[in-house]
Amino acid sequence: MLRAVIFYSTADVNYNTTAPTGTLANSGWQWVGYWGSFQGAPIGPHHFLAARHIGGTVGDPFILNGVTYTTTAVFDDTLSDLRIWQISGTFPTWAPLYRNSDETSRSLIVFGRGWTRGAEVREVTDAKNTLCGWLWVAGDGRLRWGQNTVNSVVNGGCYWGELLYA
Predict the structure, then answer these.
(1) What is the pLDDT of residue 2?
(2) Where in the sequence is the domain holding 73, given as residue range(s)?
(3) pLDDT exceeding 70 applies to what percent of the chain?
(4) How many CA atoms lie within 13 A of 16 on its CB side?
């Protein structure tokens, strides 16, 4: 789950704003819920996962497929930026957890909500004008998805833990 999905190939704000189809159908869109202005994903009948840095409070709502669940407890993973929330009620379905450590060179689908691509950021040197990325502009809160390949697993330090670099 990401804060934003920025596409290299297009600045179209309507790109990938509906569930993936074909071979990517049911690749996770069905488990992305609203956690404030961010997202989380159910990982068991009574728990969902979200990034710790986005915050939240016990008693806040988590909305999945139009159904509101109230949080009743929170559990931090002290080795990463992940936080597990417990809810009242029961999720009808949840995302399976990936328990292996062989992510490098694997394809992944990412989901993000909020920001759109702004002006290009370029590095200008003697003979080159290299695209380095884009500025972010006002968010629209729409969920998007993208596909990438994991290049490596990197150490993000004591707060972030291991991170996938794609």
Answers:
(1) 47
(2) 22-165
(3) 96
(4) 22
